[in-house]
Design a protein that fits this description.
Its main location: cytoplasm. It is found in: Cytoplasm. β2 (about 25-30), α2 (about 40-50) and β3 form a beta-alpha-beta unit. α1 runs parallel beside α8. The chain has a single domain, classed as TIM Barrel (Alpha-Beta Barrel). It is an alpha/beta fold. The protein contains 8 helices and 10 strands. The longest helix is centred in the first third of the chain and has 16 residues, at about 70-85.
């Protein structure tokens, strides 16, 4: 049985490098993590690919909000997937639903086709699907290699029983990655209860700005930020190594 893996959602180059330093198995590069994540810039993807030695996946999501996309958004996503392939990324994270909460198979097939030989993760659009069991079968049929899920709940610990049911249904045909709210102090519990194959966390900590001057009136432009932290990643990796193996 393959060992459990740790993926870190990184919202900057510094976060991606911290993930690597801390012992993550893979980076999912994102923009605007505070809003749930969108496609990062071309320059950020290129810089991360040049600097990372571990596998790099890129979130392909044109905007925040729902996962119901029109033709223009699909075109933009396909172009982003193709750019990731040209830059030598290892994979992409995609997902699209129709207005009834079903997997949008036509649009997802187009994205998988654009990915070519890249690995494909179906991201947490899955958690917004109406029928998770049916959605999982459709995602398997699309050829995705993994699905990221919180079990349809606000965090993976709460959704662990549902994740375990999905892992049992998957029966090795697709890897099930648990994500949302995973921290060093709860990862072992999530692993034991979810039976997931992989785990997804942002491992963020507050980073104070080096600015000496601050305009305190600009509440919408706070200079401090959250970034993935190498020590937190290392703690997650250690917790995962110490977690009980899957049944």
């Amino acid at each position: 049985m393959a060992r459990a893996l740790l993926e870190v959602a990184a919202g900057s180059l510094a976060s991606a490098l911290a993930a690597q330093e801390g012992g993550a198995d893979r980076v999912e590069l994102c923009g605007s993590l505070a809003g749930g994540g969108v496609t990062p810039s071309y320059g950020l993807i290129a810089a991360a690919r040049e600097r990372l030695r571990i596998p790099l996946y890129v979130l392909v999501r044109p905007r925040a909000g729902d996962f119901l996309y029109d033709d223009a958004e699909l075109d933009a996503m396909c172009r982003d997937v193709e750019a990731c392939a040209r830059l030598g990324c290892d994979g992409v994270a995609i997902g699209a639903l129709d207005a009834d909460g079903e997997v949008d198979q036509a649009r997802c097939r187009a994205l998988v086709a654009a990915a070519g030989k890249l690995g494909v993760t179906f991201h947490r659009a899955f958690d917004a699907a109406r029928h998770p069991s049916r959605a999982l079968e459709e995602i398997v049929a699309l050829g995705c290699e993994r699905v990221l899920t919180s079990g349809g709940r606000a965090d993976a610990l709460e959704g662990a029983p549902a994740i375990a049911a999905l892992a049992a249904q998957a029966a090795g045909r697709i890897r099930v990655m648990a994500g949302a709210g995973i921290r060093p102090d709860n990862l072992a519990a999530v692993a034991a209860r979810s039976h997931a194959d992989e785990f997804h966390a942002s491992a963020r900590a507050l980073r104070r700005s080096a600015m000496h001057w601050r305009n305190e009136q600009l509440r919408d432009l706070a200079p401090d930020r959250e970034e993935s932290d190498a020590a937190t990643v290392a703690a997650l990796a250690a917790a995962l190594r110490g977690a009980a193996p899957r049944d």
